[in-house]
Amino acid sequence: MRLAPLPAAAAWQHVDARSGFEVLFTASGRLEGHTTAVEDGEIWAVSYRIELDPAWRTIRAEVTGRSPSGKRTTRLARLDGDHWTVDGVPVPELDGCADVDLESSAVTNTLPIHRGEFPPGEPVPCPAAYVRFDLSVQRLEQTYTARSRGRFDYVSPAFDFVAELRYDESGLIVDYPGIARRVG
């Protein structure tokens, strides 16, 4: 699927799972954004900077979270052979992941769409280094199945989550059911 260039900025409103907002600013090889939210009565904010190689694989990600309990930053790096470090420490559990996926963000679901080949109707595994809003990191198994232009079935077994994700012509999420909807 050939995609249009990313816009310089985009925004999403969170729906159902939390109340909040996300904004994204793009540059060549870089995604920078901020999410603010209230979820289960807890107020938090997350900012991120994701650096990408030309094939849209994550090189580095810096994620900063803030809540009433304080501020914390986590740094992830993908090394040669898809090996990862978190805050400089190797994390073998993440071996084989090409992407970072942020719980707080609808944006990171664009990474596999830009990189992968998706034969229609065939599930494609896209495991990711998953950063929770509390900045803990774990491996997330997930699959994307191309349906029609801009529509993918998404499955995340760890969360028993299945949804049809809709993307715009640049590969950014337009509708992530139960999570976020593009507003700008």
Explain how this protein is built.
This protein is mostly beta strands and 184 residues long. The model has no long low-confidence stretch (mean pLDDT 95). It is 3% helix and 55% strand. The longest helix has 5 residues, at 111-115. The protein has one helix at 111-115, and strands at residues 9-14, 19-27, 30-39, 42-52, 58-67, 70-79, 83-86, 89-90, 99-102, 124-125, 128-131, 137-140, 143-148, 151-156, 161-167, 173-176, 180-182. A hairpin with a 2-residue loop joins strand 13 (143-148) and strand 14. The strands form two sheets. A 14-stranded antiparallel sheet has the order 8-7-6-5-4-3-2-1-17-16-15-14-13-10. It has a three-stranded mixed sheet with strand order 9-11-12, with no helix packed on it.
